[in-house]
Amino acid sequence: MYKKEFDNLLNSRKLTQNAIILFGESTFLIEYYSKIFINQGVNLMSLYQSEYSLQSAKAHLSQGSLFGGSNLLIIKTEKKISKPDLVTLIDLCKKNPDHRFIYCYTGSDYKASTYSAFNSKKDTHTLFVRFFNPNQNEAKNMILNEVQKRSLKMNQQSISHLLEINNYDLALSFNELSKLEILDKNIEISDIDELIYGTKEISMEDLFDLILEKKDFIPQLKLLLESGADEIRLFTAFTSHVAQLYLFNIYIKINGFVSSKDILGYPLPKFVEEQKARQSSKIDTKKYHRLIKLLVRGELELKSSNVDKSAKFLELILKANSI
């Protein structure tokens, strides 16, 4: 089962299964949906990987609730729990239908064996839900729902801006909503820029794109420097940005496709991954070599004590722009 079907079950209140595995590419969604089952009438036990023991889990699902409600067991692990353990816990849910077991598997092995214990068509007690990284529209809708829950006054443009400056990272964007709750008014883009610290980092990305696309980057650079950005930090970040694009370029040439998880060690949202791939292909190998050579030498020059950092920084950026 996927997110849309799961949402339909939750919204229609037709979810009867009490042993559920949540897994997939989006750790945020796994965490988000696990919290849906926590409420006042539940006696909760949360076990993380280092805390997990079958005996503790069995004891919680076997006993009656101390407060007369139901018991909820949430287990969160990156490594798989053995199938015999899972079967044991699922059997306890069958014997105690008022209790519930949520297994949050955040590892990267999504083979059928990962959720096989929860995948019996004849078993009305079990359910498996796989989450993919949300696309832009899904991310906007989730933020919109959260905004409405918190009674925040944000329009679609402000929501889009919040997501953009956090690189469509939902976990970060949800956290930043807490900062915006102090504003008892309609939240504008300028309010988000003022209150959300991440703006500088994202503005750097905008600046780097302008430099590499041979567009007028001076106004953006001026804004960043006036806001307190440091030339050395900007230059170091630009060097890292170019190096990352070069890694994307090399990987695509060798493999014929893009995989941000292989390149960076973690998966980017699909549309961000595709954007990086497009950007990386606009620069040929010879220009990458010239750019990286310039940037590595330039960083050493910038960090020298006897140099006018502002003048040297602008000189190096203009050279990069000309390449």
Task: Write the topology of this structure.
Elements: H1 3-11, E1 19-24, H2 27-34, E2 42-48, H3 54-62, E3 70-77, H4 83-95, E4 100-105, E5 126-131, H5 136-149, H6 156-165, H7 170-180, H8 189-195, H9 199-212, H10 218-226, H11 231-255, H12 260-264, H13 270-281, H14 285-302, H15 309-322
Parallel strand pairs: 1-4, 1-5, 2-3, 3-4
What does this 3D model show about the protein?
By secondary structure, this protein is of the alpha/beta class. It folds into 3 domains: 3-131, Rossmann fold; 136-197, Helicase, Ruva Protein, domain 3; 200-322, Zinc Finger, Delta Prime, domain 3, CATH 1.20.272. It is 55% helix and 10% strand. It is built from 15 helices and 5 strands. The chain has helices at 3-11, 27-34, 54-62, 83-95, 136-149, 156-165, 170-180, 189-195, 199-212, 218-226, 231-255, 260-264, 270-281, 285-302, 309-322; strands at 19-24, 42-48, 70-77, 100-105, 126-131. A 5-stranded parallel sheet has the order 2-3-4-1-5, with helices on both faces. Helix 4 links the parallel strand 3 (70-77) and strand 4 (100-105). Helix 5 (136-149) crosses helix 6 (156-165) and helix 11 packs antiparallel against helix 14. It is elongated and about 75 Å long. The N and C termini lie far apart (49 Å). The relative contact order is 0.09.
